Amino acid sequence: MRKSRKDLINKIFTHLLLMAISFVVLMPILLAISVSLQPRAQIFSYPPSLIPNRFYFGNYINAWNLVNMDRLLLNSLLASGIVMIGKLALGVLSGYAFSHFEFKYKKTLFFAILFTLMLPMQVRVVPLFEFVSNLGLANTYSGLVLPFLASATTTFLMRQHFLTIPKSLMESAQLDGCGPFRFLFQILIPLSGPTLAGLATVNFLVMWNAYLWPLIILNSDEMKVAQQGVKMLFTSASERDWGLIMAGTIMVVIPTLVVFLLAQKFFVKGIATQGLKE
Fold this sequence. Notes:
mainly alpha, MetI-like fold, 2 domains, 14 helices
């Protein structure tokens, strides 16, 4: 009886703690939503009001029209989608090669790929810009996504994931006449749904949140991405119109939430199937 009561108290305490942490994490987003739905007079009123007196959607309309947000969101969606697919395709193939095949200089090449993780974007940006410019791809979609199509992180994680799949599975497939590519596409990839979903989400967010490279490689307004649109709101809005800026920020955040919600079921499936492998 005492044990069950103690377990109940522990569960209540754990849930309260998690709720408090969740509130702290969500508080900036909730505050941004609240400010975006307030007219300018209420935002700068004293004492400050955390809850809108009425829902004012003028900030969203003004932000949408001021920086052509529809065009910026479309550019970001195209770039992030292409990068996500490219990273997954190259990461799956390279991870498969490093995990299931033997070839000359295999370890050297793998460590060379991992070494690129030590080079931040700020170090690579100048040679990347010169390389892309020499190809005549400055201010183009190709120049925007080309440096992001390959990912050492994706290659490493796919290799580690493929190594967890029993070798006996490949041996059985080979006995049945299954070739390497058929084994990859019909067996390995279907077994890697949660891992692929997680990497797809991360890769999408990395490109969606990219700011430095688009700022350097793009110079026309019609080619700019959503992150630059938020910065444009800072410079376009007079006297820091925070309602306008927060409205633009929320519009940029919404697609990332949609992507996460779409991939969430794969995360849950991955957790539920842990420990079922040989």
